Amino acid sequence: MSGYTFYPDKPLSQYKKSDTGLIVSIILMWGIGIGALYVCSAAYCSKVFGDEFLLVRRQLFASAVGLAGLLFFAFAPLSKVRKILPLVMLVCVVLLLATFVPAFNEERNGAKRWVKLPFFRFQPSELAKFALVLYLANFFDKYQKERDSDERSVFPAVVVMTLFVSLIFAEKDFSTGLFLFLICLLLFFVSGIKTLWLIPMAAIGLPALAMMIVWEPYRMERIAGYLHPEQFSQGVNYQTNASLRAIGAGGFWGQGIGNGLTKLNSIPEVQADYIFAGWTEAMGFVGVALYFVILCVFAWRAFKSAFVCPDRFGAIGTFGCMAIIFFQSLANVSVVCGAIPSTGIPLPFFSAGGSSMIVTLCMCGFMINAARGGCDSSEETENDESDDGALEVLNEAGVYERL
C-alpha cells in the first residue's frame, strides 16, 4: 500500500468536466425534498394560513437564493474562494453574535438561534458549518505545506473551532454544536494531523459535553425517554411514537400522495425535523429505498471527487461538505426511526427552513467545483508544480489504510 497515491495520473485539464452523477443526485434530492415538504405541510398551511403552498413557496425562494450561491461556488476558482474566506468567517461570527442581541434575534422554545434579516429569518449555525469546514480545509492545506516549519501547530484551528462551537452551544443549539464538533474531529483525522492532539481535545470536550447535558433538564429527559420509551410515551417521545406509526402506515408501496396520510396530523411540526416520516408514509419502503440510493450515490460521487481533486483545499473541503450532508441525513433519519435520542437537526433538502437549504446548496456548489478540478486554466501550471497530489496528506498519514 506504500506505493499508493491519491494524485490523479490524468492531466488537470481533464478534470474540467463536471461530475454528472453528483449533479443529478443533488437535483433529485432537492426535487424529492420539495415534494415531501408539500405532502407534509399542505394540510397544516391550508388550515392555519389558508394557503397550502405557503411553505413550499418559501422553500423555493430559499432555493433560488441557494442556487445563486451554488453557481458562485461551482464556478469561482478555489483561489478566489480562499481570498473571500476571511470575510465569510467574519460575517458568520457577526451573525452568531447577533443571536444574543434582542434587537436582531428571534427566540423560539427558549433558544435564540435565528437572526431577523430584512426579508427572512436566518440561522447562523447553518452557515457556521460551511464556514468552519472551509476554514479547516484552508488551514490544513497550509499546515501540510509547512512540513519543515518549526512553528507548525494546529492550535489556531482548535481555537477557531472552539469559538464557533461555543457560540452555537450558547444559543442552546446543543445538537448542532455537537454535530459540528464531531465533523471537525473527523476533518482533523482525515487531514493527517497527529492523533495525539485528539487526547487533550477529548479530555476537555467530553466532560464539558456531559456537563451541558446534565445542566439542561430537557436534555436529560430526552435521554431518559430514549432509554425508557414506555414511560414517556405521552411526553418527550410523543413525536417519535407518532412518527413510527406513520412509518408503519406507509407499508411497502406507501399510501400515496394525498390519499389519507392520517398519521401526519398527529406529528407536531412534521414539516421540520420529522418530515422523513411523511415521505415514508406517502411512498412506503420503495420511497425510503429510493432516497437512500440517491443519498449513497451523492456521497460516493462527492467522496470520489475529494480523492481526485488536485487542490488540497478543495479536496478536504469537499470531504467536509459531503460529511455534513451525509451524516446529518443519517442522524435525522435515525431520530425519526427512534434509533437515537431526539435532536433538532434538520434533514438536508427536505426540512422546512431557508437557512439549511441555502447553505446546503452552497456546499453542493463547492463540491461540484472540486469535481471539476477546482481551478481555472491560469492556475493549472502553478497547481501542477506545487501540489504533490490530491490529499497527499491523507496518503502520508496512512489515512487510506485507516479508512
Structure description:
It is a single chain. The longest helix is centred in the last third of the chain and has 34 residues, at 275-308. The chain has helices spanning 20-48, 54-75, 78-98, 124-145, 155-170, 174-190, 198-215, 217-227, 238-250, 275-308, 312-336, 354-371, 377-386, 392-397, 399-402, and strands at 105-108, 111-116, 121-122. Residues 1-15 and 377-403 have low confidence and may be disordered. Helix 1 packs antiparallel against helix 10 (275-308), helix 4 (124-145) packs parallel to helix 6 and helix 6 crosses helix 11. By secondary structure, the chain is mostly helical. A 3-stranded antiparallel β-sheet has the order 1-2-3, with helices on one face. Strand 2 (111-116) and strand 3 (121-122) form a beta hairpin.
Short note summarizing the structure:
With 403 residues, the protein is an all-alpha fold.
Give the percentage of residues in beta strands: under 5%
Task: Tell me, rounded to a whole number, the average pLDDT.
Answer: 82
Order of helices and strands: HHHEEEHHHHHHHHHHHH
Radius of gyration: 22 Å
Spatial order of the strands forming the largest sheet: 1-2-3
Q: What distance lies between the first and last C-alpha atoms, to the nearest angstrom?
A: 13 Å
Instruction: Tally the helices.
Output: 15
Judging from the principal axes of the Cα atoms, what is the shape?
A: globular
**Helix proportion:** 55-70%
